[in-house]
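Sequence design from tokenized structure. All designs in this work follow the same two-part layout: the structure record, then the generated sequence. An example of the structure record is given first.
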């Protein structure tokens, strides 16, 4: 004969199982679009773990449409720090770099496997921001971004990996979805820049850092919606022409260059760094609401000239 404690325990477990089953049924009764939207709010690794919840949820994560960010594995980040600490110890650095490259290849294989599993038609964003190893097929990743109609694309493959943004891939299909493009240590040809400004009508932010760009950049276009332009340490740049009615924010770090701001009626924020003193004479300065000047790396003579010309 069961005692009262055992009976209460069985009744409580039966109630809990009933509640869990009811809650599970409610989740499974949701239209497929809602769970996918929920999963797309999670990191991709957490979204993938939901495949064990039920048979219905097994492949839902593969329709993930949120942002994907690949910034290197935790082990890669630790290795990078150790390589810097070993500065001056050539043989040790070489051995550690070999191990880093091996881990990088493992990481990129995982990325390729993950990307090949995704069946959704769109992605909010795609970010590759780490030092890739030799033989990495980065063109495949860029093509994937175009196919998935990403809204935000960020590319940095390391400062020793020479990569030219592939115009032929962009021409394969329209890229009307692109809103934000951030590039670091990437070569952008004159033809590629012209395509981005002319054939990506939704582009609102263009950021180029430590990148090789044309000596003369012309930022203009009848349908140009560009609101934010950032040019940081693009040393090849000698002349910049801007005709951008919607431009709100402009950032430039580098040496002096010839500039023509032909039409920037919406410009409210500007940031200058490096040998920027001559920029204080630009005609748009009175309309700015925010002006940021970084003189931390300038020589005293430049700072003195800046103070005299502004005040």
């Amino acid at each position: 004969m069961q005692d009262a404690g055992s009976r209460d325990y069985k009744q409580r477990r039966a109630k809990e199982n009933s509640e869990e089953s009811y809650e599970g049924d409610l989740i499974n009764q949701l239209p497929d679009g809602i769970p996918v939207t929920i999963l797309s709010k999670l990191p991709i690794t957490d979204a993938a773990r939901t495949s064990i919840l039920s048979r219905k949820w097994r492949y839902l994560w593969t329709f993930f449409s949120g942002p994907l960010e690949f910034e290197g594995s935790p082990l890669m980040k630790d290795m990078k720090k150790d390589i810097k600490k070993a500065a001056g110890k050539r043989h040790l650095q070489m051995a550690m770099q070999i191990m880093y490259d091996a881990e990088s290849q493992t990481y990129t294989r995982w990325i390729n496997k993950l990307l090949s599993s995704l069946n959704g038609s769109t992605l909010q964003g795609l970010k590759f921001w780490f030092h890739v190893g030799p033989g990495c097929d980065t063109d495949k990743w860029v093509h994937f971004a175009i196919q998935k109609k990403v809204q935000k694309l960020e590319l940095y493959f390391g400062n020793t990996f020479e990569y030219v943004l592939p115009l032929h891939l962009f021409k394969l299909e329209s890229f009307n979805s692109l809103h934000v493009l951030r590039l670091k240590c990437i070569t952008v040809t004159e033809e590629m820049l012209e395509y981005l400004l002319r054939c990506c009508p939704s582009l609102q932010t263009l950021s180029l850092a430590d990148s090789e760009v044309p000596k003369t950049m012309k930022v203009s276009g009848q349908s140009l919606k560009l609101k934010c332009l950032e040019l940081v340490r693009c040393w090849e740049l000698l002349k910049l022409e801007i005709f951008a009615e919607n431009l709100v924010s402009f950032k430039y770090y580098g040496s002096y260059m010839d500039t023509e701001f032909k039409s920037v009626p919406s410009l409210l924020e500007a940031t200058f760094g490096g040998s920027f003193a001559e920029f204080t004479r630009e005609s748009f300065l009175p309309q700015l609401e925010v002006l940021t000047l970084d003189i931390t790396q300038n020589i005293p003579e430049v700072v003195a000239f800046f103070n005299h010309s502004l005040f």
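The longest strand covers residues 249-254. We note this feature because it recurs in several other targets discussed in the main text.
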